[in-house]
Amino acid sequence: MLVGALAMFFALDVSFLVSLAGMPFVADSLGQAIIDVLPGWVSIPLIELLQYWAKWLLIVGVVALFFADGAITGLLAVAPRRRDATVVAVAVVPWVASVVLAQLFSASKIEPVTSVIDAAAGAATFLVSLAFVLPSAAAQAAAADPERPPSPARRRALLGTAGLAALVAIAALPLSRISGIAASTLGNVPTAARRLRAKASLAAADPAIDALPGITPRLTENEAHYTVDTTLVKPRVDIAAWRLEIAGEVEQPFALSYDELLDLEAVEQVHTLECISNYVGGDLISTAVWTGVPLRDLLARAKPKSTAFDVAFTSVDGYTDSFPIAKAMEARTLVAYLMNGRTIPQDHGYPARILVPNIYGMKNVKWVRKIEVVSYDFLGYWMQQGWSDSAVVNTNTRIDLPGRNARWDGGVLTIAGIAYAGARGISKVEVSTDGGSSWSAASLEPMAGDLSWRRWSFGWTPPKTGSHRLVARSTDGAGNTETPIRRPPFPNGSTGYHEVDVNVQRG
User: Fold this and answer.
1) What is the DSSP letter of 150?
2) What are the residues facing 498 on neighbouring strands?
3) CATH number for the domain whose boundaries are 196-385
4) What pLDDT tens digit does each residue of the chain (507 aa) get?
5) Strand 334-339 and strand 254-257: pairing?
6) CA 260 from centre of chain
7) Separation CA 127–CA 125 (nearest Å)
8) How far apart are CA 335 and CA 417, in angstroms?
9) What are phi and psi of 289, to 5 degrees?
10) I need a surface site. Which of 150, 372, 405, 416 has the fewest CB within 10 A?
């Protein structure tokens, strides 16, 4: 068992290294197929239960399956009574399954040729590794059963199959565009808009809040911005071949190359994105300065028909979502291509993504390739799983400071955090230091932009050491205070006050 598991370890290492060239890692391919084949009534409760860890646990589970296959293959390989064909068949099962199942259930997300290359390279490594450690393992098995020594033909069968797998990988290379894709940039490159119509004007930050250790930065760096996707394998877009298609219920459909998109007049805006699966007090929320072309400019050129109802968006990986035509025609709904002064990173939608105010992140489609005006209520990927179609952001507040254990010198402790209500803005934040019995207004930092979160702070002198329950709530720009009723994210986004128990200690 150990021999087979060790050979599988080397094989997965090689497969992962090959994936760094832009190919789908074999475990990701198989994991993606599992994601796409699971019905919503299974996947949604799992996401609710495991949250951020759902995908990581899936990958761990898939890798464990590979190791299990390696261990079983190792046992069979040293068993002289097993046929060589059986050993080889068991050895290649997970590698073949990763390719076949990915194409059956996730063909729009997993490029077939590159998937074959990664799997073939891994399989060849596994078989060669097993063949080289087999003699010593077989010798031990022969000592235990001298009447049935292992056949040297088994090693030749493993090496022969490994050679065949290597040939498959090599033969597939010319058929793949991966070398060209890997050589091209995949976002996160410093640049500027060619024709900037309107530049974002950020209000001055509050230096007192900025100086607080552990406070959420006003703007999120690209590398720290949250990501949530339906895919384990991020699309690698060939920018020379990419086109943004505007079609459907329009008089004049057209398509834009990346260069043509960049030649259009652009605007810059500060925009906070929050995932609908973010729990109260969660960290699936981030803010960046985005640059892009107003969607209404593209739609005006296409001339939507009177039958237009929704605008649907399709990603390079097949993901879909939509929102009403009226929302699409708002001035601050963008086709964005820059993030914090850089081309949008691959994880965040390179080469372009949708940004729509006041709506949760799932409708801000990444890697967008098609914008289609439709005459009906289009239900995208998550809507078909039961999530909200309107997906309007709920007013929410988060306490960042202090931590669970606070050192207190007898003076003032600072309570601070962020509040967000989409395009409605934040007009007031209140803090309770007695579990919600009484409330006091916090100080508010000017918002970085009309569509951003707002940082706040409150000076508190604890009456004593020990445990205290801190609670925070916000009121949006329309005068509506967030609801205290706690609800989970599914289907309309989480609600309820953020509460933190703080243990105040002298020191």
Assistant:
1) P
2) 472
3) 3.90.420.10
4) 688 899 999 999 999 999 888 788 999 999 999 988 888 777 767 766 776 677 888 999 999 999 999 999 998 988 877 888 999 999 999 999 999 999 998 887 888 898 999 999 999 999 999 988 877 655 555 545 555 555 667 888 888 998 998 998 888 877 665 443 443 447 899 999 999 999 999 989 999 999 999 999 999 999 999 999 888 888 888 899 999 999 999 999 999 999 999 999 999 999 999 999 999 999 999 999 999 999 999 999 999 999 999 999 999 988 999 999 999 999 999 999 999 999 999 999 999 999 999 999 999 999 999 999 999 999 999 999 899 999 999 999 999 999 999 999 999 999 999 999 999 999 999 999 999 999 999 999 999 999 999 999 999 999 999 999 999 999 999 999 999 999 999 999 999 999 999 999 997
5) unpaired
6) 28
7) 6
8) 30
9) -95, 120
10) 405
In angstroms, the CA 230 to CA 311 distance is: 21
Q: How far apart are CA 139 and CA 80, in angstroms?
A: 11
274 within 8 A of 361, measured Cβ to Cβ: yes
Half-sphere exposure of 433 (CA within 13 A, CB side): 21
Beta bridge partner(s), residue 120: none
Two tokens, residue 228: 């949530």
CA neighbor of 115 nearest in space, from 95, 88, 92: 95
Domain ranges (residues) in the chain: 2-183, 196-385, 396-506
- Put the strands of the sheet holding 320-324 in their side by side order: 254-257, 243-248, 368-374, 310-315, 320-324
Between CA 348 and CA 366 the distance in angstroms is 6
Q: Is the peptide bond before 491 cis (omega within 30 degrees of 0)?
A: yes
Q: Assess if CATH 2.60.40.650 describes domain 396-506.
A: yes
